[in-house]
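The data layer described in this paper is built around a simple, fixed record for each protein. Such a record has a labelled line for the sequence and another for the backbone structure tokens. For reference, a complete record is included directly beneath this paragraph.
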Amino acid sequence: MGWRFWENKKKVDEEHTLVSLKEEISQIIRKSDKVEEDLKKIENKIDNKLEGINHQLENNEEAIQKSLRLEYKSSQEILKKLNQVNERITESIDYCEKYLEFEREKDSFFKERNFILERIIQWLDDIDLICEKIDGHEQEYWLQVLKSWQKQIVESLKMLSIYEIDILGKTFNHEVAESVGTKKREINKDYLPYEVVNVLQRGFILQDGTLLRKAKVITIEEKERTGAYEQ
């Protein structure tokens, strides 16, 4: 009797233990399911995060590519403008060199022209002096030749835009002439005040009015000399 009681008790204890084990196993399974569910949620969150990061990376890559394209285009435009500036600088240097060469040629031309002008005007002065000294019918031929040369020289100077100052028979003007002497008035002849009665050396001006050389003249003697015309 006692043996069976012990056996029954043992059996009850084993059943109770088995139930406890089953309950623990069920709790472990429920916890495992809960953990698995939480892991899935975490995994979903991670996937969402990764998807967002990938999308952001794609956007950033697109933005970077766009920025690189813009920088490339901008660099090409800058390079084009630099090439244009370089071409202009080269053109400016060429222009400066040509301008300097032109200035050198112009200076040389003016020096040669001034030398020739001095010679021509000097020849005209000499011819004027010779014509003044020639007298007599036997010298008429040479006088006509010299007068022809005078005319040709004056016309040649006009072709160079150099003109003789028209001052003979006009009132003395100190701006274009220099008085080197006076002449007494002739009786019964009218004169302008300080009239130029003889041109000893012709005066010349350029086409723009610039004075090239003052004339040297003789003026009529005035009763009251002021000296203003003897400059």
About this structure: Residues 1-118 form one domain. The chain is about 65% helix and 10% strand. The first strand starts at residue 162 and ends at 164.
